[in-house]
Specification:
heterodimer, A: 346 residues, alpha/beta, Rossmann fold, five-stranded mixed beta sheet, 18% strand, B: 426 residues, six-stranded mixed beta sheet, 7 helices, 34% strand
Amino acid sequence: MIKIVHYINQFYAGIGGEEMAHVGPCKMDVIPPVSKAFTAAWKGEAEVVATIYCGDSYFAEQTDKALAEICELIKSVGGEMLICGPAFNAGRYGFACGNVAAAVKAQMGIPTLTGMYEENPGTDYKNKTIIVPTANSAAGMRKAVAAMAPLALKLAKGEELGPYYEEGYMYTGIRKNMFEEEIGAKRAVKMMLKKLAGEPFITEFPMPSFDRVAPNPAVKDISKATVALCTSGGIVPKGNPDHIESSSASHYGKYDIEGVMDLTEETYETAHGGYDPVYANQDADRVLPVDIMRDLEKEGKIGKLHRYFYTTVGNGTAVASAKKFAAEYSKELVADGVDAVIMTST
Amino acid sequence: MKLELGLIHVTDLQFGDVSKVEDHVVYINQEDIKNLILEDETIESVELHIAKPGESVRITPVKDVVEPRVKVSGNGGVFPGWTHKVDRVGEGRTHVLKGMACMTIGKIVGFQEGIIDMTGEGAKYTPFSQTLNFIMDIKPIEGLKQHDYEKAVRTANLKVSTFIGELARNVEPDEIEVYEHDNVLEGMKKYPDLPRVGYVLMLQSQGLLHDTYVYGVDAKQSLTTIIGPTELFDGAIVSGNCVSACDKNPTYIHENNPVITELLKEHGKTLNFVGVIITNENVYLADKMRSSDWSAKLCEFLGLDGAVISQEGFGNPDTDLIMNCRKIEAVGVKTVLITDEYAGQDGASQSLADATPEADAVVTGGNANVVIHLPKLDKVIGYTEYVDKIAGGWSGSLQPDGSIIAELQVITSATNEQGFNKLSAR
């Protein structure tokens, strides 16, 4: 029987919710129901020999340490494969599942697989591990197990998976050569006939998608315009009151800068974990230039600086999340009569 | 417009006292060939070789590959503008020595010429491991510039292929393939209900040893234009290319253009094959803009419903491919692209240098960056010292034991972008 290790978070381990997210990796004494569901699906060919849980915050805040501990636990039980999740649409859990699966595969050389919703930021790891798409909530658990279990078994047996569109995992973007039955020209003509007839066809190379945004026309009179500052550089009031994650942010912050003339070391800092924070923490204006904007306001070069700034961390944050944040707060900006936005990155 | 291809299946290739084709065997008198090649004063010497499928033979660095053909009836002669005067071809009957190929090797540029293995791992990828190969190792006179050398070698192969093709003039073909197409008006009347499909054939024309010739004209100096499908079968398009071996189109593949062949087979059945648009892949942006505008315009003028677009080369021409796709889709013509990929040795990098959402139907010839191991073979025809330098090789590709570790791109025609092969990627 193939020995498989299962990684889950504190919630699925029955330890608790957000209040218990700080707990470190631990092997469960009793195999939980979610793990048993996988064992049942493998019908005696494989079983979950150990379930490891870890708090989502613990993992996010000390990823390397958590990973080392998780690898140790897998070794101690002789795990031949690792499955993680499913994480559905839980952002940090998805991030942990993707990260653990990718790292364990790379570091321990054993096959790994996870499952999550297609818009979960953890899908960023789909080129580093096999990710099976699931529903966006735990209501889809039964279906998720049914989809993940057979693929996990194949991988555990060392079998090569077929193409993503046949096996049902997410497109990995890792290109593999293979021989087709027919020559390329014949395949092209067949594809053409299908495309012309409006019938479904599968492209052999899905184009990378770029979300191109057409620039707005120039602001007519900037000296009368209300200008807002926004950033993906992670600038937040000292202490990061809304706990914006240092990586793969699940939310953004909105902060009042009425009367603030300058961002100082005592009042602001960055939450961003993707660059050396020393200079941003010394003077956060370097990322979010409130001081310069105040000068321009005084000199009459802009109408005024908007009262609020919006901020998040761009580090490893999925495009889908970033898009969602902006879709929300851009409505507020418009409603507040903002004419222009300066978006700073790092 | 009708062209008959009379195929003579060649079962063996040998040197002999008299050059002739007899009982499916091609005999070549070495003096005939040497005299022909040495007419060119820029060529100092030539050595001739034969390599057969399954033999433990490696051929490198391969430049062009040509299929010998002869025009037995109808207008003009093969390779117009080169070995025959410029005169319209593509109708009547042409005899083909099927199963053999003439290839040139030599030191030449030493960067982008390929490897052909007749057995082993490499043989799986090149179509020319399946042909009886007549190989000319051509040495230039001292001090000959590279582009003059390329021209000399290209011309030599066309002359020799014409000479060998001529041997098949009076041989009874084993098989006759008939390729027929209609003019725009006839096609429209005959098949009013079939989708109108065209073919946009992109020709490598970046210059500096990256050239293609149409009836003798350098494609980089030509506007995008229309050519009859069967004209290619008579050698109207000739390769003068030293781009990466895996995805340049040797003259052999132009003569056997698989997209044209497939579209002609389907003509009148599932589609109405309206015509072939040839366009170039120049390096200047203005040229790219003009040529892709012109491709789209011609697709529109011909009232196409769909166009298959094939590429040649990679990197810079990816932009031409994507511009063609975007502009042709923009005039309401649906596209299918044929390309190949440079996704890195691990397959994780972006495959093309450019992309567009309109390119939703793509056929790929595979990832050319994949590393392959070619075993040592008993005999080398040519020079393996270039293996470390050709595109796809690196310092140390040639192992001390004579085996080779290199990227797939070193193999001649391995990831062909006219869809000549079965290799693909997912």
